[in-house]
């Protein structure tokens, strides 16, 4: 019996790609000739931030990469906190409904502050029990799923991870939890316990 639900962010709760691109273009002005589109950002969502920096700035030194990345992430968090980022139409209502019956968590490969910007802009703090990301500790998603369960006394057999990519699915399996595939998101997945055409379907599946 599922008692706790752990959500991925991008492609699961929202699609922030267009606003992230706008923030990154502002951040790199004067530092790089690279400009970003929403599709560029969607193409790397799900990767850890250091991997994204290597993908986007392959010719820069590691130190310069991290300097650019830090600036991009700082401006991005502030931009998303103010402007939001393409929340899916049923996210707020669905998390409010699920929070009455389940403990809800967020685990993402994003930078520190990204989840908080999302929760701040949309006022969803009351629905989320806890959150953890790569930017908090540099750990992979499967490890952070385990950590957040340990911290909050969640039994893996009673947890469900909701995500939209193969990395999400593999991380859930490695952490020993069931996986719901958000098919409306950015990726494709080989193997899942549940398939969602919209986030709201989770309420019916878990009745």
Textual characterization of the structure:
The chain is an alpha/beta fold and about 210 residues long. The protein is about 45% helix and about 15% strand. The protein has helices spanning about 15-30, 40, 50-55, 60-85, 90-100, 115-120, 135, 140-150, 165-175, 200-205; strands at about 5, 105-110, 130-135, 160-165, 180, 195. It has a six-stranded parallel β-sheet. Strand 2, helix 6 and strand 3 (about 130-135) form a beta-alpha-beta unit. The longest helix is centred in the middle third of the chain and has 22 residues, at about 60-85. The N and C termini lie close together (about 10 Å). The mean pLDDT is about 95.
SSE arrangement:
Elements (H helix, E strand, L loop, with lengths): L3 E4 L9 H12 L9 H5 L6 H8 L5 H22 L7 H8 L4 E6 L5 H9 L7 E4 H4 L3 H11 L7 E5 L2 H10 L2 E5 L11 E3 L4 H5 L2
Parallel strand pairs: 1-2, 1-4, 2-3, 4-5, 5-6
Helix pairs in contact: 1-4, 3-4, 4-6, 8-9
